[in-house]
Amino acid sequence: MDLNDKGVIKSTFDSEKIMDVTHVFHLAFSGDTTNTSRTVASWLNNLVEELESAGNPLEYVFFASGNKYYGVHLAELPGEPKTPFRETDPRHFPPNFYYDMEDYAIERKKKGAKWNWNTYRPGPIIGYSLGYMNWLMEFAVYATICKEKNLPMRYPGTPQGYRVLFDCADVDLLADVQIWLSKNPHAQNTAYNVNNGDIFRFEQARQNF
Questions:
Q1: CATH code: domain of residue 50
Q2: Which residues does residue 64 pair with via DSSP β-bridges, in sequence order?
Q3: 77: helix, coil or strand?
Q4: From residue 20, how far is each of 51, 55, 133, 134 by CA, in Å?
Q5: Tens digit of pLDDT per residue, the chain (209 long)?
Q6: Domain assignment present for 144
Q7: Distances in Å between the alpha carbon of 169 and those of 104, 126, 186, 196?
Q8: Residue 84 maps to a domain
Q9: Is residue 128 part of a domain?
Q10: Quick one: residue 184, left, alpha or beta (phi over 0 = left, psi -120 to 50 = alpha)?
């Protein structure tokens, strides 16, 4: 289904007679960094609004976020990211499609949407993933290259990344959290940082790891 096209979404619902959707879990991502903010947020809007138009009894909408909410991807920011991150931390200067999705959910709720929502903001993710989203796999590829080239496996990132506090998230944990949030209304309509809790800094590890 092409989430860019409301007409395609509508025709899919009509042809499949989809009329009983109550929960939406939106974890789609665009690898096109030039228009990610516009694209991914619009996918959520299009999907939810076409489901509503088709008469589906929506109760819950979940959409995934991450540590980019806190600006970790902005290398030009001065200093180091302030860790640990708190859900109440201020936003960085936009654009950021995490903000677009969250603002959409908040605004729709204010206007009387019957569905509740959640998002989580995990750190680097470890576990099965299509493409390059598995952090551990990236390190495994780097380690393999170092071994093949007979090079020491040194930290490959920035000085800020070498010093900052890390906290990873396992995919099974993230899946469990999505299910739990969808079943507990008292925990809905807000965002959560979700991580394993095994914090570390690369500078405290061995130089060659």
A1: 3.40.50.720
A2: 120
A3: coil
A4: 9, 8, 32, 33
A5: 778 888 888 888 777 777 899 999 999 877 665 545 568 889 999 999 999 988 899 999 999 999 999 988 886 555 667 788 999 999 988 889 999 999 999 999 999 999 999 999 999 999 987 767 888 898 899 999 999 999 998 888 888 888 888 899 999 999 999 999 999 999 999 999 999 998 888 888 765 45
A6: no
A7: 26, 6, 23, 5
A8: yes
A9: no
A10: beta
- Specify the pairing of strand 60-64 against strand 23-26: parallel
Q: Which domain holds residue 191?
A: 6-123+169-195
Read off the amino acid at residue 129: S
Taking residue 190's Cβ as centre, other Cβ atoms within 10 Å add up to 13
Candidates 9, 30, 7; CA nearest to 18 is 9
Q: Could you tell me if residue 75 is inside a domain?
A: yes
pTM of the full structure: 0.88
The domain total for the chain is 1
Q: How far apart are CA 188 and CA 199, in angstroms?
A: 26
Between the two ends of the chain, the Cα-to-Cα distance in Å is 43
Instruction: Report helix, strand or coil for 203.
Output: helix
Report the interhelical angle of 97-110 vs 36-53 (nearest 10°): 30
Q: Which of 93, 170, 87 is nearest to 135 (CA)?
A: 170
